[in-house]
Specification:
Elements (H helix, E strand, L loop, with lengths): L6 E8 L8 E6 L25 H11 L5 E5 L9 H10 L3 E6 L4 H7 L5 E5 L8 H4 L4 H15 L2 E8 L6 H14 L3 E6 L19 H11 L2 E6 L1
Parallel strand pairs: 2-3, 3-4, 4-5, 5-6, 6-7, 7-8
Antiparallel strand pairs: 1-2
Helix pairs in contact: 3-5, 6-7
């Protein structure tokens, strides 16, 4: 039931998290991975200290009908909650579009949420063989890339994005990742540059882009129909 959805935070208005629409963001509690650059570590536990009741979320959304256009379910990893599909269906019934930010941690759970999504921002953490060093979970790459295939087969509008911290990535790894994504059929790719501030692993420090990064950005603009470089 959607009443059980555990929400650890809410951003009431954003123009950045659902392309082209005014949206709010619900940060769903819980994540099974431990990405070293995670900037929402308080959302990793299954239950948080600042949980927002679902009834309060619905009351907020009822006051925003006709003002907001979309509700984005982010995290944490929203798809780990069994209540997510019902919650997404609920906000659509209220007249909002449903966005989903996900890394597809468990492909079967990701597949259950996909039919209720109008748009997905999908986090490709890295090359499948390299992902354990980023997520702290072995074989996480298999799940991430399996869920990517499910997304590409679904026809749901989406963007794929990769967060890059230069202590965890180099230019050649990123180039190989981009090539594999394009071969898979990804048209819309975003590179998000991590900033070393509030993050799970305090040993990650601010690292400037390596020499040659500007050349790679030009390559990726040519490779993908749509490519964007973002600071996060």
């Amino acid at each position: 039931m959607s009443a059980a959805l555990r929400v650890g935070g809410l951003v009431p208005l954003t123009t950045l998290d659902y392309p082209g629409l005014l949206a709010c963001v619900l940060f769903c509690q819980g994540c099974a991975w431990r990405c070293r650059y995670c900037h929402n570590p308080e959302l990793i536990p299954a239950r948080g200290e600042a949980q927002i009741r679902w009834d309060d979320v619905l009351a907020f959304l009822s006051r925003r009908q006709g003002l907001l256009q979309a509700v984005v379910f982010s995290g944490g990893e929203a798809t780990l909650q069994k209540a997510l599909p019902d919650a997404m269906a609920c906000v659509r019934e209220m007249g909002f579009r449903a966005g989903l930010h996900s890394a597809g941690i468990r492909p079967e759970a990701f597949a259950r949420a996909l039919p209720h999504a109008d748009w997905v921002g999908f986090d490709v953490k890295g090359l499948a063989e390299d992902m354990g060093a980023i997520t702290g979970v072995q074989r996480s790459g298999l799940a991430n890339w399996r869920s990517l295939d499910l997304l590409l087969d679904s026809g749901v509008q989406h963007e794929c994005r990769t967060t890059v911290h230069w202590q965890l990535f180099d230019l050649e790894r990123l180039r190989r990742l981009a090539s594999r994504l394009r071969e898979r059929g990804v048209d819309n790719f975003v590179v998000q540059l991590a900033r070393s501030g509030r993050q799970l692993d305090p040993e990650l420090i601010a690292t400037p882009p390596p020499q040659g990064a500007a050349d790679l950005w030009r390559e990726l603009h040519s490779l993908f129909p749509s490519f964007e470089l973002r600071d996060v």
